[in-house]
Design a protein that fits this description.
This is FHA domain-containing protein. It holds the Pfam family FHA. Keywords: Membrane, Phosphoprotein, Transmembrane, Transmembrane helix. The chain is built from 2 helices and 11 strands; from the N terminus they run βββββββββββαα. The protein has a 6-stranded antiparallel β-sheet with strand order 2-1-11-10-7-8, with no helix packed on it. A 5-stranded mixed β-sheet has the order 4-3-5-6-9, with no helix packed on it. The chain has about 260 residues and is of the alpha+beta class. The two termini are about 30 Å apart. It has 2 domains: about 1-95, Tumour Suppressor Smad4 (Sandwich), CATH 2.60.200.20; about 135-240. The model is unreliable at about 105-130 (pLDDT under 50). It is elongated and about 90 Å long. β7 (about 65-70) and β8 (about 70-75) form a beta hairpin.
Amino acid sequence: MPRLIVIHPPGLEGTVLPVGERRQVIGRGSAADLRLEDPHLSAAHAAVVPVGGGGVTIEDLGSRNGTMVERERVSRPRRLRDGEVVRLGTVHARYEDDTGAGERGHTAAMPRAVAYHVGSQAAHQLNNVAGDQYNHYIERRDSFLRQVAAYRSKARAVFWLGVLMMFGGAAVYAYFLLRGMGDFQSSFGSGQMPRDFPFGPDVGLGAPIGLVAFGVGFVGNILFWIGLIMQIVAAARARKVDVDPRHSWNAPALRR
């Protein structure tokens, strides 16, 4: 039976996701068919779909941290081959199909040779250098994604604080402005300027509450745009996590 076996992170290692005979959603949401508790997964992250004649395709569902097969980002449904590693955010799972259907119609992929730099390590320390270096790069990648997630959380906080201040300040400013205009019209015949015209009573230092509210709304507008830009930057960094050559885990030596 086709299945995905989680090989990373350690807390989920060994988890088996059986692929059934219908479309199944993988994610951390309660509605997901194949649910994994990982903060870097979207609620509905990806879907696996059986295809005619055997085999399985995988498609990304607009996830926040993306879906990859080996080192190729999944932008449209992609058929899986037996032994390929699927990345769902920071979760790595190996696809296994003991029926052999996963390789029909495909040329077997040549294994990649991976270069590991061992430096001057002693011979007795090299028995697990491949696994150690692989885990080192995966840990650095996961740490980077955690930093991006924290940055995105701050961006959302700034964004929504800006929205609250902008609309709250605008509402208070509009209220006192309209009230002042109404008082002015009602006292027009008396020839006396209405009290607290046009922005309401002072809140201290000669600043009427309407103008204070205007200032709060103005600052909120600035925070709104700062938060929006921060979210765009965070999303761009997350999308490039597996393609930006500046990251050590994308070094050319690891791609050969």
